Structures are given as C-alpha cells and as structure tokens.
Amino acid sequence: PRAAPESGSFGADSVGAARVRGSVVEVDNPANARVQSRIEKIQENMTEAERSRTTYAVAEVQLPDGTGTTWISAAGKEGYVPPRIRGKDAEVIKNKVSEGTSKNRLNDAEQTLMREAESRGVKIISIGATRPMCKLCQGVADEQGLSGAVATPRK
C-alpha cells in the first residue's frame, strides 16, 4: 500500500461508483485505500497502552480552494497526537468541545474531524480510525453523507 499524499488536489472524482452488498452501500473511493494505509502505519507505531485506550482518526479533506490535505485527531478532551503518530504531513485537529462524555462520544477522534470539517466548510473525502467506528460516530458520518467515505471498520 502507498502512503497518503502530503497535499494535493483530490477533486470531486475522488469518490467513485457505488455498489450494494447486503445492507451496506460500498463506494469505490481511492482515498479510502490511502487512509486505510495511513491507519495501518499508525497502528504499527502505537504502544500497547495506546491500542487499549486511544483512538486516532485520519481524514483526507478537500479545502474550499480545491486543494487537499490530511488531518489527524486523537480521542479525548485534549486530543494529543504524538509526533511519531502524526508524521510530518498531517495537520493535527484538536477537540474544541468540553462537554464530551463516554455516553455522547463528542470526544471521539472521528467526531472531532467531522465537526472541524463542518466548521471550516471542508469536504471529507475519506475518514478512518485505529479502532472500529462506534454507532454514534457512524450516525454523524451518515448524517453528513460520508457513508462511502469511511475507510475503516464500523462496530
């Protein structure tokens, strides 16, 4: 697998044709393969303790000017992403809400990226996480029309 690009233009053609498999709609999205590869590299660099308690999320996004970049976030109130995890090319997106709990999942890394995209007027081309996406994050992704942009497993 190849690494995610540092930046560039992902364009509207980044999301391809859709197909239905059972009750799941799958979309041929080339960005999903890049995000999945990036997630796998992050998982290789995670400590055992991080694997059991931390989720990192990555998104390829298209900025309002049409250029693309990579974002990364960590779950939690602080959302710290160590340099060995973030690499040199990803912009770290920190959680900006203080009311997150284990029930409302507002501190989840995926929700942090989706909120930031919405607030900046940015299009998420692909999003994935180091752990399966929870039902609440899936609901937000579905509401934002990102079903075909989720690159990693769902719970």
DSSP summary: helix tally: 5
Computed structural class: alpha+beta
Overall helicity: 25-40%
Q: Please give the radius of gyration in angstroms.
A: 14 Å
| Strand element count | 7
Order of helices and strands: EEEHHEEHEHEH
- Taken as a percent bin, the fraction of beta residues is 15-25%
Shape: globular
N-to-C CA distance: 24 Å
Largest sheet: 5 strands, mixed
Give a description of the structure.
This protein is of the alpha+beta class and 155 residues long. Helices cover 30% and strands 22% of the residues. The chain contains 5 helices and 7 strands, in the order E-E-E-H-H-E-E-H-E-H-E-H. The strands form 2 sheets. Strands 1, 4, 5, 6 and 7 form a 5-stranded mixed sheet that branches. A two-stranded antiparallel sheet has the order 2-3. The longest helix is centred in the first third of the chain and has 16 residues, at 30-45. It is globular, with a radius of gyration of 14 Å.
